Batch of 2 targets.
Target 1
Amino acid sequence: MTQRIPKWLIAVAAAVYAFLHVPLLVLVVFSFNDSKYGVSWQGFTLQWYQRLFERSDIIDSLKVSLEVGLASTVISTFLGTLLAMGLARHKFSGRAVMESLLYVPVVTPEIVVGISLLLLFGTLRTQMSVDTPSLLSIIIAHVAFNISFVTIVVRSRLEGMDRNLEEAAMILGADEFTAFWKVTVPQLWPGILSGALLAFIMSFDDYVITSLLTGPGTSTLPIVVYTMARKNIEPSINAISTIILVVTSVLIWFADRLEKRDTSLARK
Amino acid sequence: MSPRLAWLRWSARRPAARAWGLMLPGTLWLLVFFLIPLLFMLGYSFMPKALYGGVKLGFTLEHYQRFLSPGTDNGFLYLVILWRTIVYSVGCTALCLLMGYPVAYVISRAGPWKNILVFLIVLPFWTSFLVRTFATMFLLRDTGVINESLKALGLITDALPLMPSAFAVMVGLVSGFLPFMVLPIYSSLEKLDPSLLEAAEVLGAKPFQRFTKVVLPLSMPGVVAGSLLVFIPALGSFLTSDLLGGAKEEMIGNLVQRQFMTAGNWPFGSASSFVMMAMVLVAVFFYLRQRDSAAAMGA
């Protein structure tokens, strides 16, 4: 091959990879550093991790984050999968409008999403005395920004799928519901699961939208991490950041595997 | 007849009804909790301000006039914030392109390393934006790793003012959005037919010419898509400028947040949001036009 990559190009790429990953590695390394203030290395310790378990605000916020994450993932995965089915499997007028509606959440800045919902819930409260508890409003917001992403992921799987199997099942006497449950869903499962994983990660990581809708007792983990980053009192924030990084990396690796397995199955 | 069977019979001849049956719940959610709130906000931005952040009934353009007026308002010149937002977003897009293109190019030719290299780009793409921003703070702040290391080496005595600064915001934005640039460029380079390069070589094109005449034009769809994917979130960014920039580096996102959370001027905050949304829509419009003309050329 004449197309060898020039050395300088490899050096540039390596520098960019370093730029992306070194800050995170440094953060992780210092979560094990036995020094409260300085950033010089004072020996290995796990005390910042132990400290996390003593802080009730972190434990509580983790619970809120998991509640919000699970609830919004289940709802958005369900609604998003149905939307994908409708879009991928049926011809109807108004499709183009539906497609654009689907992409509005993808391009809308997070701060605008959060503010507009704050306005909606605020107006409902002052004008109609409908009070939306902050936990509920956070879940509603997370579902609203997750639906589109789930739909896009699931739809791309659906479009790559073989419809003949479903038709065969129906010719063999299955009605549409049975064909769907017994034939389509098992094939679609990896797509649904990777959509759900991505929805969970986005919900679990969200700071901007949640910070606008949160109230007393509904601080999620990112809200607490943000406050710690602002005050920067001790390396516990490095420890919690490391845990978040490890957990999301594992989830992403899992989603990546699912997608690979899915596409390799589709090729067979 | 069971209701299930009845629905199947009724909908069999009406595919649109069946599609809408599946899509109705999700569509309603998007309408009620996404589109309607945006329209609410649009309405607010045209209404006179009342006490305590509320609005009065009526129609006014004063909030947009206030935003776009060339004079200062309590020491704030909103046009400066608008201009800064545009400059940072364009600068971030340009830097991401400069840094991301070589990476995408190397990945597309990395053979057995491809999967791991793509994964290393996807990983930061999905890991917590907040944690990554904090990682940048941890390096750049006065007591951060860079300043402390330089002090320990005796190179400086006082901390370098790395953060808060425009430089820190740019580092945060670029490291935050770089993966959005790399992935689309990589996928368009991946589709490039190697025989075209061989043909160019046979016809006497030098490596540089092969790049500018063959590779670059064919990867333009990726470049355009990547630029949009970086530019839009950069326009709307809040966290980066909030944590790494401080009050002097405020972007529109911070202005909007301040109007709602502390200044209590909801209609003005809504108008500011729509100035931001208008820029996003202009970017999307240009992208779609570009993409359609590229598709027309390809056809």
Target 2
Amino acid sequence: MNRVTVPIGPQHPLLKEPMLVLLSMEGEQVMESALRLGYVHRGIERLCQQRTYVQNLHLIERVCGICSHIHTTTFCQGIERLLEVEAPPRAQYLRTLLCELERVHSHLLWLGVLAKHIGFDTIFMYAWRDREIVLDIMEEISGGRVSHAVNIVGGVRIDIDPAHHDTILRRLDDLQAKIEILQEVVEHETSFRARTQQIGYLSSGDIHRYCVVGPVARASGVDIDMRRDAPYGIYSQLNFKVITRSEGDVWARTLVRIDEVLQSLHLCRQTLDDLPRGEISVRSKRRVPSGEVLVRAEAPRGELVYYIQSDGSEKPARVKIRTPTLTTLITIPNQLRGLSLADVSVVISGVDMCVSCADR
Amino acid sequence: MTRDEVIRKLVQKFPEPAGTINSMPVDEKVISIELESFHEIITWLQKETPFTHLTTITALKTEAGNTLLYHFWYKQGLTIKVVLPDGVKSIPSLVEQLPGAAYYEREVAEMFGLDFEGHVNLMPLFKDLPAQNTEEPR
């Protein structure tokens, strides 16, 4: 049978960000596929070398529009390590609160996108409606819905007042009830299962071979989570479960992410309940001493890594960013092989990719 | 096998200098190796130790020359550091043993002009894309 090449992208309704998936098809079946990235490559690593550390905070926040806070948190932790200062406990709790709210927001956004691509518009509408609750909370705390600019070297910029706690906690309870309904639907609804089960399968061997991280790895039974394995900030003092499943398909990834949302809400409550009093930032030296630091953190999509090298000047000598999406993109050709064209959208949205993160 | 055991065995087998990079919560151990023993050491790590997860490859331009840091992870971080001698632009690829290294190597090749011997598709990852989007997949 003749092979036909079907390009999906760089601009396509299936893709929220520009990239290109080239499918080599025989009839309805995908035989081979290849990815092409770089349509939103901004050269952020190089730009970091031309800016001071403080300017870089604002640049790095713009690596990703969904998980902007975890990028600055990771970067600040690295700089603080080089400066040998530690953010005060209250600042670390506030950072963690925002990290977990961001995880909830990211996973709900993804759930909506997946449901939309399956054609299950009810989940799409409900997930994005519920996501507004989190966005509102984040906006009240920081003033921004997606770019928060909360982190500074040595702490955070914004405090929350005690009167705000109760309203946040009340809305988190409301959100939890709504997410439990979504969980029930995803787990038992026949049409959702029919579109996602045994689609985009990755075995735990594939995960190890391709060095995949995050919810995609955990849905294939690989128990890896930097919040527990390399606890940074205050995660070692918090109580949470790392969710894993063994099925390895898009359905398992959905359930893992929904369970993670519930765990994140649990973490948000703990940070608000235990929020210590005190300063929210400490003053630090302006000049970062020479040295190098490698920071690993758990972004919504998995392990995020920053390597920062300082030569003692006011600008970093090298900043290397490894985002979790890059590890999952590489598995897409494997997941697509042999599937029908109708399932391509489920696989592509199922890995929860952030092209801006991957391209940098 | 823990990280310390791996490092002890590595230093016994291939007597190389060791160092650290600041990291959290435990510092990253760094083993500096020569380019000649690179392939053998990585194969040994992959086959006989649990350090099979490659986090990423960081490339640096230093006074000593192009430096590559291979960050591995198993409960703790272990970094293998290779400094390419003057004039050497090529290093063995890990793709055959570890397909997950493919994108990292493509990125380093593109940004630092290095060659990875044995990489089946060292096409640029982010820049210099062909203009046509209907070319055959590669």
